[in-house]
Specification:
The protein is an alpha+beta fold. It has four helices and seven strands. The protein has two domains: about 55 residues, no CATH class; about 90 residues, Alpha-D-phosphohexomutase, C-terminal domain (TATA-Binding Protein, 2-Layer Sandwich). A five-stranded antiparallel beta sheet has the order 3-7-6-5-4, with helices on one face. A two-stranded antiparallel ribbon has the order 1-2. β6 and β7 form a beta hairpin. The longest helix has 15 residues.
Length: about 150
């Protein structure tokens, strides 16, 4: 999916993939790629991220949280979100919705939010990318209320 997008990198909390490279989250490969990028650019990772955001004029902050759930909660979320395809009321214009790997809502301007079950842990993950950290946290709070979970994994 990453190679079909107008993106250089895809990531989540525990990994990252680079377009036109290995498309799985290999920690050792990632460490070598990041080390090479930092050595060649002679700058910090934070500085490179800031420069990329500025170059493409796309200010954003991404947040992610994980929520443990029980079987009753899982059944509710699967029915309400993934079978009935209910969407949270965010007050934002929705450009598209995908259920390819959980629920992914693309908002106007390219910002997004995701609700998805982890593939290897007994948690559901909520992600949001917005222009500011506050707006991303606001979307997460809406998602929490929407799925009925608020106890975050530490």
């Amino acid at each position: 999916m990453l190679n079909n997008q107008n993106a250089l990198v895809g990531s989540e909390s525990n990994g990252m993939a680079f377009k036109n490279h290995l498309l799985f989250k290999d920690g050792i490969f990632l460490a070598f790629m990041v080390a090479e990028i930092l050595a060649m650019s002679k700058t910090s990772l934070g500085s490179l991220v800031a420069k990329t955001k500025n170059k493409y004029n796309f200010p954003c902050e991404t947040v992610e949280y994980a929520y443990p759930f029980n079987e009753k909660q899982r059944e509710y979320i699967e029915k309400f979100v993934f079978k009935k395809k209910q969407l949270p009321e965010t007050g934002l214009k929705i450009e598209s919705v995908s259920y390819a790997d959980g629920l992914r809502i693309i908002f106007e301007g390219g910002y997004w939010g995701v609700i998805r079950f982890s593939g290897n842990e007994n948690v559901i993950r909520l992600f949001a990318e917005m222009p500011t950290r506050k707006k991303a946290d606001d979307i997460i709070k809406i998602f929490e209320k929407f799925i009925g979970l608020k106890e975050r994994q530490i």
